[in-house]
Amino acid sequence: MLAKKSRLNTQVTIQHRAAKxxxxxxxxxxxxxxxxLLTGTSESLPYRVAGMLLLLYAQPLVxxxxxxxxxxxxxxxxxxxxxxxxxxxVPEPFASLIREHLATRPNLRTGAGTDSPWMFPSTLxxxxxxxxxxxDRLRDxxxxxxxxxxxxxGELVLECPPSLVADALGYSHQxxxxxxxxxxxxxxxxxxxxxxxx
Length: 198
Prior knowledge:
CATH topology: hpI Integrase, Chain A
CATH superfamily: Intergrase catalytic core
Largest sheet: 3 strands, antiparallel
Oligomer: single chain
Helix content: 40-55%
Shape: globular
Number of strands: 3
Number of domains: 1
Strand order of the largest sheet: 1-2-3
Structural class: mainly alpha
Order of helices and strands: HHHHEEEHHHHH
CATH architecture: Orthogonal Bundle
């Protein structure tokens, strides 16, 4: 950098160093947290629902707190939720948890008012919860937020084409294909090892 500033070297550019690894939960850890938030009593209902949106659908909490109730469609065939261009099915028992949350959202009798459009209303009129409020509660519980999101995307792109995952969850195709490559890499190494083995 000093050489470039002093014009001793104007040809060499140093590329941004990409992280070799990204924090992630194991699938067993992710499933344990899903079970805890679905059935446990370690946290109140709004934070359990927010955590489930992270663990099941890889939704960043900064985005989760901005969701309006209108993204949820609860009709006869079952519940769906729209994060991206297409609605995504919500399985039981999480659908029941969302129904309970929507029927008992907190802060509606305070500053938010009963007509609040937010899934996670704040005590301040017309506002949703601040993302740090939700992040801090789940971190205090022990949830690795970035790890949970990485693991959720990684599992989803193994089950469905990355482009469909991107459209359904509101991610860019570049992000989901990157996660698909990372998820497939250990399997590629394993397959190569098996082929070379006598």
